[in-house]
Amino acid sequence: MDEEQEREVIHEVERERQVQRPPKLKPAAQELHKDVRRFVNTGRIPTGSPAFIPALSSLVNTSAEFHEGDQWAHDVLVTRDFARTVGTFLAMQKADEYLRPVNWIVSSAVGVLVVMSPNEVNTLLPDIRNSNVVHLCIYTPRTTNTMKACDDLQLYQVPSTPYLTPSEPLICQLNLFAGQLYFSSYEMYLRTCNFLGLNAPDLGNEHLIADSDGFIREENRPSVRASCSFKRSQLPSLKELFGMRRKGVGYLPTHLGKMLNGRILTEDDFLD
Fold first, then answer.
1. Which of 76, 165, 211, 216 is the most exposed place for a label (fewest CB within 10 A)?
2. How many domains does the chain have?
3. What is the Cα–Cα distance from 60 to 230, expressed in whole angstroms?
4. Is residue 13 in a domain?
5. Are 111 and 125 in contact (CB under 8 A)?
6. Is residue 21 one of the residues assigned to a domain?
């Protein structure tokens, strides 16, 4: 009798998941720096301006620590207003839960991509409409397979006059920073592998020595990956970044989920 009662009690035990929310912090004061307005009017970043920082530098207070951030493109920038979302952090607290999503991109005729805050875009929209040196577009990372990629930066252009599409290396790095989970094409996947120094089908059946995550170290790197300048794998830091972007939502079955876990994609992974 005691055993039967014990079994009933065991079956009645329920597990309840509790979501731990980040502590409430005072939002940072929004500020439009004069150099950001100057960029919209001239298309050029003022030398030494504190209003613009490299995209990866905006992650300095997070768990995503990129040891070779200086090897990433210096033409993918964010404004300081975009990077600053909350006021003062508590002691030893990370900004992982307070990242701003990447949605507004301003590109210039000199090939610079600047991620701006909604406040800056709203304030500068009249200037952008009248500009002939910069373009504003809506951007959102592709997070589902059925979602259409908008990393060609052609969605909602302001002004609508034709302009040159930014180079693929910049788009590649913008997608990684923003947390895009699906490549727009097989070619973009190969370009990303080339940038990160990863093993991929374009290397053929060569006998390569690669780490478990697919990273090919400098001493083992074939000529096809000669343009990669990283001495250590960037995948651990990217995993941290994508984890922050996803806020606990799994992404293992996606293109990036597979790549970040050492799987080599093929053209079959890009079939509709």
1. 165
2. 1
3. 19
4. no
5. no
6. no
